[in-house]
């Protein structure tokens, strides 16, 4: 079982935290700090498995982490999960984020925290691995996002109007209409 | 409009705060705005506010006021609001909060919603934070979804069922048939969920396990499909077809095949195939191989397969990738109990991993090395382990030290080696050893009487070089106190002698006493050692006297008490001093966990020690027929008598009995500082004639045995020699017949006495 999934940056600021077991808020922050402390000490060419976090679970739990550019992805798992499998799962999750956000970077995670949660919900559910096929995950997430957009409601109207017009295929407006000798100048309107 | 835009503005505002204080201000303002919005009845931007609240919650600020809002959002008909509401429920609520009960109804309704994504939201939330009551309520609903829905919902329902089974074990029965039928699905996601569910059911309930053994052929079939089938692009990860599913199935096969011949036979072929066909150049291939190896080693597989598995692990150990090496050591740890010899073959590689830079690899290597220590390799292994101890990371030190001690105790090839090893550990890592080490070591030293000289020399040298390691200093002080005369004598067979004067020794002890690095317990050791030296040395007794009297006004109460009592020993009870400070007896080996030997003997009136010692040696020499005579005398008892006399009675050879707490608890001896003996247990005088008195006391009645102490004393002016004692007891009733014989003033005496009743405790 996966006990927690934490994403934080090189300075320890949390970018996504998901606990599959209840912890009080201050406990959660303490766990994040402790995990960051343990993970940041690690060299770059050592193995990706860490033991020794005492707050989050004791002897049966280990931390499996991967470092991508400025972010640490840490999964806290117990012995019922295959360690190498989880390592691959982190890779799958990151690739999925990449597909959903188009060249994902830390800013995407910061400003679209809710979307990242929804993507994660398709991968891990209740502490257990749900789906590992990237295409499947991406497809489901797309459908759900479309559903959400489609019921935007009143407040969505202006934004939708703008996007609708942008996509409208206006035929080319001729600048000068030449019918024989009459030269009517069409006033130039600013493009929509 | 997605909730993201106002959320992004808030995030931007928080990020632009330059100090922590500013950030807190921004967040407080935002939270106040959110709270105000929540209180308003209905507004279009509800989902934004909850999203903002969740962001704030992630940063660590309190967000409990959003709980009711989550409940309201979940009940909303709009998908965007439901989505955020469920997310909020998963982050902010748990079964301990009252608000979680309120969402039960919403979840129930949403589980039968027409939109599958709403159903999935409900399933997800239930799997994350469903309480036992909620699970019980909704279990039939989940079962229905397991049978009749699309694959997207089925896979989610399967994992939800796992959560339900974890919360309410009895419901496992409900899901077993549905789980069984799910194995026929083609969709890998559903298969994966089904396998997880079956694994959980089998682990919980052995009867279910029996029933699911019948599915082994189906599982084997599925695996074969994955392994042999051609390239399938949708499930392929780096050349391996759906490795996650393969790993899950292998794990389930392991559980089903454990301890079962038939099931294990059915999977042998498959495991061999997977082991040979899987590509091990990528991580995913290794994950599958690793799982296969674990399965092979756990079920009743044939020996060829086992050899193959251990060889694969050996290959993993030599892999360059540290992750693989770590994994290999973890799995070797699991099989070191059963396949010890196979793992021994890789001992060299494992010991090399002790020197790896990576702390995780070191930790694994340490545990494995300690498990591999045996009588044959103890010397070489210990060398490596001691080398490791001197350079190991701090968090592993105490584990390494106690592991080394255990190994040394079990396999020490010689006493001297044992003592050397322990001293080495104390010098390198003395601060990290456990507390029992000191009494254990002292016990060990006392029991090896031939090495006393060697030990005390070594300890003295260690003490001179470094007095910061408390355990080492304590042991050293104790030894110097006990065997100071051997130290001063200067000669020693085992090690180079060093000329030590009495002043040097006293200087060393005084340094320990006065150093600020010494713990109070250590100073107690040093003071007692100084005191003991007063009988071992000849010239500097006055110096000792002055040290002791100085500490009579020490602030530390413990030290002060000791010093005062020692002072009294100098002044009023000087005649007793030699006897009190005599060498300690050989300490009985106690079971681990008892740091104190329990005091078994009482203090006794002053008896010439030397004479009484002889009796001990005479006892076994008694001819058998005399013993039989004695037994006949017991007549009248129905049960057969024991042939060995002298059960439980001992003639105390020491003038003073001590509690065997190493640590010089002479305080116990000095009790009330009276010459009369302490009698903690009731005693009975069984014989008193011409100055010879025998008293019996009964102590420490345990379930299986009873300790009776017999004390013999002589109150005449003349010596008694050749004191012999025989005793006979019947098996059942507690009676005793005692015969004594001795020589006094040239004439021999003999007497017999019967004891019918023992003093009650």
UniProtKB/TrEMBL annotation, chain A:
<dbReference type="GO" id="GO:0005794">
    <property type="term" value="C:Golgi apparatus"/>
</dbReference>
<keyword id="KW-0653">Protein transport</keyword>
<protein>
    <submittedName>
        <fullName>Adaptor related protein complex 3 subunit sigma 2</fullName>
    </submittedName>
</protein>
<keyword id="KW-0333">Golgi apparatus</keyword>
<dbReference type="InterPro" id="IPR000804">
    <property type="entry name" value="Clathrin_sm-chain_CS"/>
</dbReference>
<comment type="similarity">
    <text>Belongs to the adaptor complexes small subunit family.</text>
</comment>
<dbReference type="GO" id="GO:0030123">
    <property type="term" value="C:AP-3 adaptor complex"/>
</dbReference>
<dbReference type="InterPro" id="IPR016635">
    <property type="entry name" value="AP_complex_ssu"/>
</dbReference>
<dbReference type="Pfam" id="PF01217">
    <property type="entry name" value="Clat_adaptor_s"/>
</dbReference>
<keyword id="KW-0813">Transport</keyword>
<feature type="domain" description="AP complex mu/sigma subunit">
    <location>
        <begin position="1"/>
        <end position="147"/>
    </location>
</feature>
<dbReference type="GO" id="GO:0030659">
    <property type="term" value="C:cytoplasmic vesicle membrane"/>
</dbReference>
<keyword id="KW-0968">Cytoplasmic vesicle</keyword>
<dbReference type="InterPro" id="IPR027155">
    <property type="entry name" value="APS3"/>
</dbReference>
<keyword id="KW-0472">Membrane</keyword>
<comment type="function">
    <text>Part of the AP-3 complex, an adaptor-related complex which is not clathrin-associated. The complex is associated with the Golgi region as well as more peripheral structures. It facilitates the budding of vesicles from the Golgi membrane and may be directly involved in trafficking to lysosomes. In concert with the BLOC-1 complex, AP-3 is required to target cargos into vesicles assembled at cell bodies for delivery into neurites and nerve terminals.</text>
</comment>
<dbReference type="GO" id="GO:0006896">
    <property type="term" value="P:Golgi to vacuole transport"/>
</dbReference>
<dbReference type="InterPro" id="IPR011012">
    <property type="entry name" value="Longin-like_dom_sf"/>
</dbReference>
<dbReference type="InterPro" id="IPR022775">
    <property type="entry name" value="AP_mu_sigma_su"/>
</dbReference>
<dbReference type="GO" id="GO:0006886">
    <property type="term" value="P:intracellular protein transport"/>
</dbReference>
Automatic annotation (TrEMBL), chain B:
<comment type="similarity">
    <text>Belongs to the adaptor complexes large subunit family.</text>
</comment>
<dbReference type="Pfam" id="PF01602">
    <property type="entry name" value="Adaptin_N"/>
</dbReference>
<dbReference type="InterPro" id="IPR008153">
    <property type="entry name" value="GAE_dom"/>
</dbReference>
<keyword id="KW-0472">Membrane</keyword>
<dbReference type="GO" id="GO:0016192">
    <property type="term" value="P:vesicle-mediated transport"/>
</dbReference>
<keyword id="KW-0653">Protein transport</keyword>
<dbReference type="InterPro" id="IPR050840">
    <property type="entry name" value="Adaptor_Complx_Large_Subunit"/>
</dbReference>
<protein>
    <recommendedName>
        <fullName>AP-1 complex subunit gamma</fullName>
    </recommendedName>
</protein>
<dbReference type="InterPro" id="IPR017107">
    <property type="entry name" value="AP1_complex_gsu"/>
</dbReference>
<keyword id="KW-0968">Cytoplasmic vesicle</keyword>
<dbReference type="InterPro" id="IPR011989">
    <property type="entry name" value="ARM-like"/>
</dbReference>
<keyword id="KW-0813">Transport</keyword>
<dbReference type="InterPro" id="IPR008152">
    <property type="entry name" value="Clathrin_a/b/g-adaptin_app_Ig"/>
</dbReference>
<keyword id="KW-0333">Golgi apparatus</keyword>
<feature type="domain" description="GAE">
    <location>
        <begin position="679"/>
        <end position="761"/>
    </location>
</feature>
<dbReference type="GO" id="GO:0006886">
    <property type="term" value="P:intracellular protein transport"/>
</dbReference>
<dbReference type="InterPro" id="IPR016024">
    <property type="entry name" value="ARM-type_fold"/>
</dbReference>
<dbReference type="InterPro" id="IPR002553">
    <property type="entry name" value="Clathrin/coatomer_adapt-like_N"/>
</dbReference>
<dbReference type="Pfam" id="PF02883">
    <property type="entry name" value="Alpha_adaptinC2"/>
</dbReference>
<dbReference type="InterPro" id="IPR013041">
    <property type="entry name" value="Clathrin_app_Ig-like_sf"/>
</dbReference>
<dbReference type="GO" id="GO:0030121">
    <property type="term" value="C:AP-1 adaptor complex"/>
</dbReference>
């Amino acid at each position: 079982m996966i006990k927690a999934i934490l994403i934080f940056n090189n300075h320890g600021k949390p970018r996504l935290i998901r606990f599959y077991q209840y912890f009080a808020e201050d406990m959660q922050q303490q766990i994040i700090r402790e995990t960051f402390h343990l993970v940041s000490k690690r060299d770059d060419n050592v193995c990706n498995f860490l033991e020794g976090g005492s707050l989050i679970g004791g002897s049966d739990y280990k931390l499996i982490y991967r470092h991508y550019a400025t972010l640490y992805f840490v999964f806290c798992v117990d012995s019922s999960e295959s360690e190498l499998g989880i390592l691959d799962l982190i890779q799958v999750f990151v690739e999925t984020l990449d597909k959903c956000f188009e060249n994902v970077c830390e800013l995407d995670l910061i400003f679209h925290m809710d979307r990242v949660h929804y993507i994660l919900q398709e991968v891990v559910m209740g502490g257990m691995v749900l789906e590992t096929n990237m295409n499947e995950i991406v497809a489901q997430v797309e459908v759900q996002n479309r559903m959400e957009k489609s019921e935007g409601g009143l407040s969505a109207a202006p934004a939708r109007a703008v996007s609708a017009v942008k996509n409208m295929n206006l035929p080319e407006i001729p600048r000068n209409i030449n019918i024989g000798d009459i030269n009517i100048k069409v006033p130039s309107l600013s493009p929509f | 409009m997605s909730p993201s835009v106002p959320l992004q503005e808030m995030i931007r505002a928080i990020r632009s705060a330059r100090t922590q204080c500013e950030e807190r201000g921004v967040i407080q303002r935002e939270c106040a705005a959110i709270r105000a919005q929540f209180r308003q009845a209905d507004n279009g931007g509800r989902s934004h506010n909850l999203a903002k609240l969740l962001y704030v919650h992630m940063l660590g600020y309190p967000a409990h006021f959003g709980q009711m809002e989550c409940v309201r959002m979940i009940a909303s008909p709009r998908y965007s609001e439901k989505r955020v509401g469920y997310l909020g429920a998963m982050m902010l609520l748990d079964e301990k909060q009252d608000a979680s009960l309120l969402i039960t109804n919403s979840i129930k309704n949403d589980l039968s919603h027409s939109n599958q994504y709403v159903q999935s939201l409900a399933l997800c939330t239930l799997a994350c934070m469903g309480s036992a009551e909620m699970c019980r309520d909704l279990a039939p609903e989940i079962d229905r979804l397991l049978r009749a829905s699309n694959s997207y919902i089925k896979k989610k329902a399967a994992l939800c069922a796992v959560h339900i089974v974890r919360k309410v074990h009895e419901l496992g029965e409900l899901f077993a048939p549905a789980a069984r039928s799910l194995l026929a699905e083609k969709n890998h996601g559903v298969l994966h969920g089904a396998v997880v569910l079956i694994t959980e059911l089998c682990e919980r309930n052995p009867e279910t396990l029996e029933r699911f053994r019948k599915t082994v052929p189906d599982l084997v079939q599925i695996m074969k499909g994955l392994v042999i089938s051609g390239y399938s692009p949708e499930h392929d990860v780096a050349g391996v077809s759906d490795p996650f599913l393969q790993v899950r199935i292998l794990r389930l096969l392991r559980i089903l095949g454990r301890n079962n011949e038939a099931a294990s036979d059915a999977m042998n072929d498959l495991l061999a195939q997977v082991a040979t066909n899987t590509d091990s150049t990528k991580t995913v291939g290794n994950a599958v191989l690793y799982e296969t190896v674990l399965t092979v080693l756990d079920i009743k597989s044939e020996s060829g397969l086992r050899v193959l598995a251990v060889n694969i692990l050996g290959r993993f150990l030599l892999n360059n990738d540290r992750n693989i090496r770590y994994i290999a050591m973890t799995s070797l740890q699991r099989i070191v109990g059963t396949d010890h010899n196979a793992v021994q073959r890789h001992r060299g590689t494992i010991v090399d991993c002790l020197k790896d830079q990576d702390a995780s690899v070191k930790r694994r290597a340490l545990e494995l090395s300690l498990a591999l220590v045996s009588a044959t390799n103890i010397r070489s292994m210990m060398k490596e382990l001691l080398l490791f101890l001197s350079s190991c990371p701090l968090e592993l030190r105490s584990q390494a030290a106690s592991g080394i001690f255990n190994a040394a105790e079990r396999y020490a090839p010689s006493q001297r080696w044992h003592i050397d090893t322990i001293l080495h550990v104390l010098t390198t890592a003395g601060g990290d050893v456990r507390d029992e080490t000191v009494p254990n070591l002292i016990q060990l030293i006392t029991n090896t009487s031939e090495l006393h000289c060697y030990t005390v020399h070594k300890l003295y040298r260690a003490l001179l070089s470094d007095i910061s390691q408390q355990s080492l200093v304590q042991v050293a002080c104790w030894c110097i106190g006990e065997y100071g005369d051997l130290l001063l004598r200067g000669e020693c067979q085992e090690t180079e002698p060093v000329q030590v004067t009495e002043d040097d020794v006293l200087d060393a002890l005084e340094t320990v006493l006065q150093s600020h690095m010494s713990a109070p317990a250590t100073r107690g050791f040093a003071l007692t050692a100084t005191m003991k030296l007063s009988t071992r040395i000849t010239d500097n007794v006055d110096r000792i006297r002055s040290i002791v009297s100085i500490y009579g006004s020490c602030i530390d109460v413990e030290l002060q008490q000791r010093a005062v009592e020692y002072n009294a020993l100098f002044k009023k009870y000087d005649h007793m001093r030699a006897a009190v400070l005599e060498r300690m007896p050989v300490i009985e080996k106690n079971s681990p966990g008892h740091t104190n030997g329990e005091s078994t003997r009482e203090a006794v009136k002053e008896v010439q020690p030397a004479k009484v010692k002889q009796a001990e040696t005479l006892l076994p020499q008694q001819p058998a027929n005399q013993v039989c005579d004695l037994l006949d005398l017991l007549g009248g008892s129905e049960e057969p008598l024991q042939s060995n006399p002298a059960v439980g009675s001992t003639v105390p050879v020491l003038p003073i009995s001590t509690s065997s707490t190493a640590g010089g608890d002479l305080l116990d001896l000095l009790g009330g500082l009276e010459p009369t003996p302490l009698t903690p247990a009731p005693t009975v005088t069984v014989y008193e004639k011409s100055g010879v008195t025998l008293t019996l006391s009964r102590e420490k009645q345990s379930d299986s045995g009873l300790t009776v102490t017999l004390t013999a004393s002589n109150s005449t002016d003349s010596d008694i020699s050749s004191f012999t004692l025989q005793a006979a007891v019947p098996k059942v009733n507690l009676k005793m017949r005692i015969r004594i014989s001795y020589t006094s003033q040239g004439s021999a005496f003999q007497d017999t006495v019967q004891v019918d009743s023992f003093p009650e405790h």
